[in-house]
Write a structure and sequence with these properties.
- This protein has 153 residues and is an alpha+beta fold.
- The protein has a five-stranded antiparallel beta sheet. It has a two-stranded antiparallel ribbon with strand order 1-2.
- β5 and β6 form a beta hairpin.
- α1 packs across α2.
- It is elongated.
- The termini are far apart.
Length: 153
């Protein structure tokens, strides 16, 4: 199996060439199946490609790339965390949506930690009210809660 990843880690061959492949079993005949457990090989393959494309990133950020780059599908909402299927090309090119890992409230401030928030402050609303960004980075956003919102709500 050959998968080509460029030096910049952003370009890859989106097909795999197998010269010879033989699957046999005396226990059970090979067959096709569906379901979430059948997604495991696809996600594992994407994780391997991302590890090659982003060798200096930890497993948590690679997982966030996978989660944040899925192609949403209404028919999968009830079956998976992301409500979608993996999109390796999007993940390799860095086109991931924000992924939230942790939310904490401390008095009048709300801090969201995760990945892919961007380096420039965006707009955040809660309950229809805008929240002023106290700080903003690609991995953490701290907001001042509107007066009508308190911690725990």
């Amino acid at each position: 199996m050959v998968i080509n990843v460029s030096e910049d880690g952003k370009t890859f061959t989106d097909h795999v060439y197998l010269k010879r492949l033989r699957l046999t079993s005396d226990v059970k005949a090979y067959g096709y199946d569906t379901g979430t457990s059948m997604a495991t090989p696809a996600v594992t393959g994407e994780a391997a490609i991302l590890a090659a494309a982003y060798p200096n990133e930890g497993a948590d950020k690679l997982a966030a790339r996978i989660i944040g780059s899925t192609k949403k599908m209404d028919t999968l909402v009830q079956y998976s965390l992301t409500g979608g299927i993996v999109n390796c090309k999007m993940a390799v090119h860095g086109d991931s949506s924000p992924v939230l890992n942790k939310v904490t409230v401390n008095g009048e401030e709300l801090t969201v930690e995760g990945y892919f928030f961007g380096d420039h402050a965006g707009e955040v609303k809660t309950g229809g009210d805008s929240c002023a960004a106290q700080s903003w980075s690609d991995t953490s956003v701290t907001l001042k809660l509107p007066e009508n919102i308190t911690g725990g709500e």
